[in-house]
Amino acid sequence: MSKGLAQIMKQAQMMQQKMGKLQEQAAEKTAEVTTGGGAVTVVVNGKNQVLSLVIKKEAVDPEDVEMLQDLVLTAVNEALKKVHQEMSEEMSKITGGLSIPGLF
User: Fold this and answer.
1) Residue 83 to residue 98: CA distance in whole angstroms
2) Most exposed among 1, 18, 36, 64, judged by the fewest C-beta atoms under 10 Å?
3) What spatial distance separates the first Cα and last Cα of the chain, rounded to whole Å?
4) 42 phi, psi to nearest 5 deg
């Protein structure tokens, strides 16, 4: 194997190790989003898991369930978007901006 190809293989292995470590750390990365002026707060992790959901008592109106549903959906989707963006930025540092499908 030529020195150039050996160097490329070594760099690829290092990148793969760093990407694996980042994926392991994804569970530790969290994002928190609050909607409705503090009525709903959601925390998610980098593995797209909802870690906590807090709904203030005053946000619960039996006459307007749709508003509460919208607040929860918005908070969850924004938190997932936020943590995904953070993970993508970290992955971009590893890959040098190279987009690899299926990774964050």
Assistant:
1) 19
2) 1
3) 33
4) -125, 140
Residue 92, token pair as written in the block: 């971009």
Distance CA 99, CA 104 (A): 10
pLDDT band of 32, cuts 50, 70, 90: very high
Which residue matches tokens 């998610």? Answer: 44
User: What does pTM read for this prediction?
Assistant: 0.72
- Ordered DSSP codes for 5-63: HHHHHHHHHHHHHHHHHHHHHTTT-EEEEEEGGGTEEEEEETTS-EEEEEE-GGG--TT
In angstroms, the CA 94 to CA 38 distance is 36
Would you place residue 75 in the very low, low, confident or very high pLDDT band (cuts 50, 70, 90)? very high
